[in-house]
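#lab-general

N.A. 3:47 PM
ok so I finally got the sequence cleaned up, no stray characters, all 79 residues accounted for. can someone with queue access submit it? mine expired

B.Y. 3:52 PM
send it over

N.A. 3:53 PM
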Amino acid sequence: MNRLRTVIDALEYPIERADAREELSDVTLLYADGRESLAAVVARSNDDVFRSMEDLEAAVFGNVPVEAVGEPGQSDGDA
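B.Y. 4:20 PM
back already:
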């Protein structure tokens, strides 16, 4: 997930979801508990077209599983 921005910034925008899936089919996201194809994550998006890199990035972060971003049960600052 750390290099996501570099990968999706290389695409030309706007880009349709099907084209983004094809362009990103060889990219694998590494999660805290496994891995998944970036194309599979993009496929779960409700957007038909990504107008910018930020749009695609938001769609990816909105569609990765909760377990992808840290240890299960981990908290960000509950004291």
